[in-house]
Specification:
mainly alpha; ACP_PD; globular; about 230 residues; about 0% strand
Length: about 230
């Protein structure tokens, strides 16, 4: 799941550090795809400082939400549907249809949460800003972050740009997908392909909305409640 989808499960959580922790795994990977942190494997390092404990709790919630989401029937069915829809945009080029469908589904879920006002995106950014403190740096130091200065620069830009608001427009979902693919492949799409992709994403968004996209959020909530997570 993407940023706003993870935030959905903490949208009423007053702990800024918990909210930061919930999206921190993705922030780390966006800052540098080769950074691999696993603070959950050394929990004893984070128990004695409340801010560290909250960040770790959020981190673990992120991992569990992703596990439930990616093993769900919803994920399998919707990625298969989106894969078929976007095939006309992938007749040429290096991009793998399943990869694009996987990321596309996650971004469309964020788009729907944003455009339907289900999450308060401005509040999300405010909570991230509140948690961008020396306590976050301390947590990341214990977690083994290779370059704090570089991450701080990335996080400053992520918060100040409020980029997720751009997901209101489907064409910006296409832009985001293209940027992600450019990290892996040179010139992943031609302009005509991007136009087709935007069209197909719009069709998929409408189908997903009609089918009741909130079912997956309800399912994950139920699973978290069962585990008392």
């Amino acid at each position: 799941m993407n940023f706003l989808s993870h935030f959905y499960f903490e949208r009423q959580n007053s702990s800024d550090y918990m909210v930061m922790g919930v999206v921190l795994p993705d922030l780390i990977k966006n800052a540098d795809k080769d950074w691999n942190l696993n603070p959950q494997k050394d929990e004893y390092l984070f128990r004695d400082v409340p801010e560290y404990a909250a960040l770790l709790s959020g981190w673990k919630r992120h991992l569990e939400v992703d596990r439930i989401f990616h093993s769900s029937l919803f994920f399998k069915e919707q990625t298969a549907l989106l894969k078929q829809l976007i095939l006309p945009a992938l007749q040429t080029g290096p991009v793998k249809p399943f990869f694009l469908a996987h990321i596309g589904l996650e971004l469309i879920l964020d788009h729907l949460l944003l455009t339907q006002g289900i999450v308060d995106t401005a509040h999300f950014y405010q909570q991230l800003n509140n948690a961008h403190t020396p306590s976050l740096a301390g947590f990341l130091k214990y977690a083994g972050l290779p370059d704090q200065k570089r991450f701080d620069h990335f996080l400053d830009n992520f918060i100040s740009s409020e980029y997720l608001f751009s997901y209101e427009q489907i064409e910006n979902i296409t832009y985001a997908l293209n940027r992600i693919c450019m990290r892996l492949w040179n010139n992943p799409f031609q302009e005509e392909q991007l136009q087709t992709l935007t069209l197909k994403l719009g069709e998929f968004k409408q189908q997903l909305d009609k089918q009741g996209f909130m079912t997956i959020f309800n399912q994950i909530n139920e699973e978290l409640d069962k585990q008392n997570f």
